[in-house]
Design a protein that fits this description.
Blueprint (H helix, E strand, L loop, with lengths): L6 E2 L3 E2 L5 E6 L10 E6 L8 E6 L6 E5 L11 E7 L25 E5 L2
Antiparallel strand pairs: 1-3, 2-3, 3-4, 4-5, 6-7, 7-8
Length: 115
Amino acid sequence: MNLGGPAVRDIRENAADQYLIPAGSWAADDNSALYALYQWDGVPAHAPVKRADLPTTDPGGWEAIVAVLDLSVAGVRVQLVTDSGSADLYGDGTEAKDLGRPESKKSRAAWFTLN
């Protein structure tokens, strides 16, 4: 699947055979590249269509889709979760997955509206 550079981070299908794909850097701590959400109809000959750009200002990469609702509904919302395991969350040079205290490890979820 050619998305013009970004790597597929997840792919999720809903009951209407619509697919949603968050794509971005393959490295969870690299937010220098574009992250975006794509919709695909599942036909191998058809290219996915970009539905939204995703913010890259916080640590961690957009990794997983919580659920995919009907993508044909105007203003449908989708919730994504980050992978922050390789991110330096506290600016001390330690990756989140290596932090000694479990309560210091975190990721985030956010809702996005598709136009």
